[in-house]
Amino acid sequence: MSTAMDTESTYSGYSHYSGHSKKAHRQGRDRHKSPRSKDGSRSEKSVTIQTPPAEPLLGNDASRAEEGQDDNWGETTTAITGTSEHSISQEDIARISKDLEDSVGLDCKRYLGLTVAAVLGLLVFLTPIAFILLPQILWRDDLEPCGTVCEGLFISVAFKLLILLIGTWALFFRQPKADLPRVFVFRALLLVLIFLFVFSYWLFYGVRILDSKDTNYQGIVQYAVSLVDALLFIHYLAIVLLELRQLQPMFTVKVVRSTDGESRYYSLGHLSIQRAALVVLENYYRDFTVYNPALLTASKSRAAKHMAGLKVYNVDGPGNNAAGQSRAMIAAAARRRDSSHNELYYEEADHERRVKKRRARLVVAVEEAFTHIKRLQAEEQQKAPGEMMDPREAAQAIFPSMARALQKYLRTTRQQQYHSMESILQHLSFCITNNMTPKAFLERYLNPGPTLQYDRDRWFSKQWTLVSEEAVTSGLQDGVVFVLKCLDFSLVVNVKKIPFIKLSEEFIDPKSHKFVLRLQSETSV
User: Fold this and answer.
1) 3-state helix, strand, coil in the chain (%, to 5)
2) Where would you find the membrane-spanning parts of this chain (predicted)?
3) Is 305 exposed, middle or buried (0-12, 13-18, 19+ CB in 10 A)?
4) For the chain, how far is it from start to end, CA to CA, in angstroms?
5) 260 vs 323 pLDDT, higher one
């Protein structure tokens, strides 16, 4: 693995704004993947949820163009030294091929399901029309004349099919939010029910009408109308099973992030485990603060520093047992741990002091920068056309005065990897365009926001794996625990059923609210 060195030099991110800006180089974060565990002792089932590709939340086409030179503007670029050799083993080749097969399988499954649903839907809508047209084509001369009632049934069939088409489009034709590992059971049951229903109608139509060439055309049209009515009832059943059944809250789930312990509570209805996992992930991107691995390195470095300060000397020669050395190191570490809480206290106090100091400097710098711009009215724009700037130019003009304070604050709070210089300029121009205050501009940087607030290329969680001891198509139950894993952390979900609440009533007569003033000799009354 390549090594990285931290160097401090002049800061090139602002060279086109001011002549005395600084440029910094820092160690890039190597994201390492642990090999998959092939331990089969646990009876857990692991499946994968992939979110569909989407456009970036912030239009960062321009930022991608400058990403090569100013991606980590606040602190860094990564300097790679030495030579690196890349090797791949047979296990890696097998794992890569398996991943490709899984991705191909997911795509085939998705398109196969859409194809089957589309063919079945087309068959459903064409069947009533075929029931009405086939007698007119095959034995038109033998049919009885269609009266007023029969012609009125044509209008009924047309409008019912139109209503069914609109309802089907609203319920089923939606852009998928995710690729679930297993099929949706209720949707599959509805497709099977519709197929059996239409097949039985065609079977009856072929035996009793086509073979005998029935001449009662009004009865044939009424038969088609009955089919459309039944399809409307099936559509109502689909609304109940797919939409209404899950609305009533039945379970409370606790979601805990494994790295920092941040947790949230959500109420869910009757859902399968895989659909509950999808709801949890949708709420995670909205409610949880963005995952920042830089905040977790302080405790690890502190523990490593304590252990690095211990030295053990072997005075009895190299043949002495190593178990004694281990016990000596553990005992020495325990004695040093007794005083480590003081170091932790002073480190946190010093960090809070530096954060407050740089936050105050940032607020003052931004407020001063915003005072240098003014929105021109329509009559003022005609007076001084040469001095006007668009929001992008205004943001570029005032950004250098606040850049250093913002850079230091983001370094101190370890947020520099989430904010590129281009994204900050876009946010600043957005605030200037909408006449927002400096406080509104700073809200994004003073308080870490949810994951959706940042660009997708800076997320640490894009593909998830669902691990559950129960089948993912089974419904939620009290005490069920499942885990959503991504590359760097996982979400542990614990399901609890909402208890049955018994509420009683007690009547109080309004006339019973009577009081007496109790006087004592010691009171001033």
Assistant:
1) 55, 10, 35
2) 111-133, 153-172, 184-204, 224-244
3) exposed
4) 86
5) 260
| Per-residue model confidence as pLDDT tens digits over 73-97 | 444 433 333 333 344 444 444 444 4
**For position 26, what pLDDT does the model report?**
40
| Residue ranges of E strands in 278-396 | none
pLDDT reported for residue 77: 34
Mean pLDDT score of the chain, rounded to an integer? 75
pLDDT score, position 336: 58
What residues does each domain of the chain span? 95-246, 251-292+460-497
Please give the sequence-ordered ranges of beta strands (E in DSSP) within 279-407, or none if there are none: none
**Residue 429 pLDDT class (50, 70, 90 cuts):** very high
**What is the b/e burial string over 39-73, where b = at least 16 CB atoms within 10 angstroms of the residue's CB?**
eeeeeebebbbbbeeeeeebebeebeeeeeebbbb
CA dihedral sign of residues 357, 358, 360, 365: positive
Scan for tokens 């004694």, then name that residue. Answer: 324
Q: Does pLDDT of 430 surpass 60?
A: yes
pLDDT tens column, 437-462: 999 999 989 888 888 888 766 665 66
Widest CA span of the chain, in angstroms? Answer: 116
Q: 401: buried, middle or exposed (CB in 10 Å: 19+, 13-18, 0-12)?
A: middle
Total residues belonging to the chain: 525
Q: Which of 225, 219, 223, 117 is nearest to 161 (CA)?
A: 225
CB-neighbour burial class of residue 476 (10 A; exposed 0-12, middle 13-18, buried 19+) = buried
- What letter does residue 73 receive in the DSSP assignment? T
Q: Are 490 and 258 in contact (CB under 8 A)?
A: yes
Look at 144 and 357; give whichever has higher pLDDT: 357
Whether the pLDDT of residue 419 is over 90: the answer is no
Helix extents (H) in 139-245: 148-172, 185-205, 217-239
439's tokens: 């406080």
With the CA atoms of 80, 86, 91 and 97 taken in that order, what torsion angle do they form, in degrees rounded to the nearest 10?
Answer: 90
